Amino acid sequence: MTDADYEFGQAGEERPFPDNRADYRLTATALAILELESTVPELSAGHSETEAPGRELVCRIRDISARGMSLYSREPLSLGALLPASVAIGEPPQSFGLMVEVVWCRPSESGFLVGAQIVQSDGTDYVEWVEAVAIAMAAE
Questions:
Q1: What is the mean predicted confidence (pLDDT) over 67-93?
Q2: Domains of the chain by range and CATH?
Q3: ∠ CA(10), CA(29), CA(54), 5° rounding?
């Protein structure tokens, strides 16, 4: 990650709702891929297993912090939904497998603005994510 990849604050964007985040956040050009429906094995007529495709939603990230992010979504997300996410940040992009919980979802000009809290979970890159965000903030 380089200093040019992130900046503190709100990037000149008006926020019509109060910001309840306890952490500083960085605005970044990044993507999150949310797994809305997981890939599941199916039995075909010949009893061999095939995989039914899952459903993913690619979202642009507006800002990140060690414990959460806000992102732009083409569709509304259910409050409280726990979703596996793959988040790529930095240059060159570093990918993190995370679990996120949707804490708010509001209509915006281009779809929906979503607030997601990162949930500490086994099998995710939670610790690596916190470290990467701390390094990016230290570089500011």
A1: 92
A2: 3-7+22-139 (2.40.10.220)
A3: 120
